[in-house]
Amino acid sequence: MSQATAQFINIGERTNVAGSARFKKLIMQDDYDAALTVARQQVENGAQIIDINMDDAMLDAELAMETFLKLIAAEPDIARVPIMIDSSKWSVIEAGLKCVQGKAVVNSISLKEGAEDFKCYAKMVMRYGAAVVVMAFDEDGQADSVQRKYDICKRSYDILVDEVGFPPEDIIFDPNIFAVATGIEQHDPYGVDFIEATRLIKAHLPHAKVSGGVSNISFSFRGNDPMREAMHSVFLYHAIQAGMDMGIVNAGQLTVYADIPTDLRDRVEDVILNRRADATDRLLEVADTYRGLKKERLEDLSWREAPVAKRLEHALVNGINTFIVEDTEEARLEADRPIEVIEGPLMDGMNVVGDLFGSGQMFLPQVVKSARVMKQSVAHLEPFIDAEKEGSKSKGKIVMATVKGDVHDIGKNIVGVVLQCNNFEVIDLGVMVPWADILRTARVEQADIIGLSGLITPSLEEMVTVAEEMQRLDMDVPLMIGGATTSKVHTAVKIAPAYDGPLIHVLDASRAVGVASKLMSDDNSADFTASIKSEYDEVRAKRLANPKADRLVSITEARANHGQPDFSDYTPPKPTFTGTKVFDDYPLGKLVDQIDWTPFFRTWELAGNYPAILEDKVVGASASGLFKDAQDMLKLIISEKWIAAKGVVGFWRAFADGDDVVLETGTNDNRFSFLRQQVRKRSGRANDCLADFVAGEGTDDWLGGFAVTTGIGIERKLAEFEAQNDDYSSIMLKALADRLAEAFAEHMHMRVRTEFWGYAGDEKLSNEELIKEKYRGIRPAPGYPACPNHSDKRQLFDLLDAENAAGISLTESFAMVPTAAVSGFYFSHPDAHYFGVGKIGQDQLKDFAERRGVSVEQATRWLRPNIAD
Length: 869
Known about the structure:
By secondary structure, the protein is of the alpha/beta class. The strands form 5 sheets. An 8-stranded parallel β-sheet has the order 9-8-5-4-3-2-1-10.
């Protein structure tokens, strides 16, 4: 045994509620005696440090950490090894540090939140005399290359040693062990990158230690324990030689390096050290031998016998990317020039896709898969085309962007994919794009068309700004408008008057190609744009001739006809807590059963309700294939933790004051100014306002609020898909994250009704009944019909401390980031119901501005879509 191997420290990983189902169950059941047995077994199996983590949304982590560590202190056979206190929350770490005898290890701190927070936490760790694990993570994210790993560790080391005065021997770097053999080429160097980064750290950062979560390296072989154990042993063999000092690993399940069968060891070593391009494939060849599983049924590959052009067409139409690179290369070798592959068989194949899509024989999910294949083929050809300094001629160049203030882009991305499938060149500027950047890019790139997208209602105002600036700059580029809140009427009435150039609303992705093609047609463009202008002029004239304001009653009349929920027979129950409660890393598996799948299919422009859509005669086959892909990805999202869920819920004593709801927060008078329906109602129907559902002053009542997201960490996975030219998986992940966020909101509302507020403790509803909102109470969201004012989010987020508690921030136009997020209010009254405010008059607008303490101009910008003509 080498000296390095002899000195390696095993960190036991089983006393971790996130890593051991058995340990979590014991802690949840308050069976601390049995939990101590888990810790004892770790020590007996060779763990020289035990890592303890109590982070779970259903646990009081501080109490659990304190309780368990105090019990360990009374167990000499466990307390003889150091304790690693593992948590993402400083309050849990500090609770643990107060209970540990001797020198502890804190896991972990990093530069993720910046240098100042990093130094603050380091000083507190030093005050307790503990060592610290420092993650290779900075403001730009996790390090995934040798140089980035070392650079972040070097910067952290310099700050700790030179600025904080932290003992260098108490610094333990974790340069991030990531999974290898995933099938993604960018992941191939992850194992050797950690090893080489370790060499640099040990050579240049005196006295610092290196650690890591060893089980991560084999995550792609979960379920195959013999394979994982072999990978751990091979990885440790080389990492320890490079200087790795310690690692989180199940000490009782390590294979001796020399005992690994030679063939398996060689193949594993090829993967860990990235020694050959086919290393992953070679390892997969023997993986099932060690797991003892049967081989999967072979697919029909008879199409592989066709000429290469037909193979390319088959791959494009069926979305098969398995052989696309080799087939593309074969086609390139047969062609005189590489560009001919694009202009010939690839475009021929995409024309088939376009024809099938246009005729309704293919549907959007299949088209996006086809685009993935096309992109991967073109990516292979691009270096050869660049060498000739030539490219294919596109049908037109389109600059697309989600406008400033808005971060939603699923629809825009789908439109971009469909346009690219039809040989348009798309320059996608992304989200939150200011008008100046959009127009500058359009001019520099000599764009033929500009496409604007937006989801939240403030986006409509920003689109008007873009049109006004195009007019001011004397531009005449056709402008396409799209997004969930846009419409032909809004485009005609609000945007068209601001711009004299060609302007058209595009309903969905299936219409985008036809619109763009007509705009680019030499023969048809003028007639097409003239007909659209005439149509919009007519729409606008009819709208202005029949103003919505004529259908409204005054705000005084509307308030006189307010809703009258009965509070004489209803005593609002007191919530089980007031203030806020945070739910960190909420289990995604608990949300799956509450997903409403119907909107998922609509995202992909497949019409129909789930589950009937799966049997639909027209779209059933496509919907079923899409649903299978969604289920497969959903399993990976959960098992591999692609994203994380976080949320926060709050309750505050409240009372209604007219159309306002006042929160008695104890520090200041927080007031939400809600809007009231002003449309003339028939007899017996009230002009509703959310404030009607809260008791007046003098009666105990409460208002709840929430913000939840399932988008934490999604950017990294999306970047992987982007690098692979995989739009299909990218859009699928975003769509599933959105569905999980809505499910999280539904799930949390159920817990509010039955548990946290408890006004419906005996509720027993099926998921179908929940989707149909058969429950008591409502959860209206700012920006939606009952509460159309998006600016309410700012005040709600401040009350919830949503940015810190749930990791959700707001743009200047009140869009939520991550986009897979839901926020809103909780009302408990049995008569509370959903409604739409609709159009409001100038009298309520002025009244609202006064109540909110803002100018009428500001209120107009917030509420423009709701202001009657």
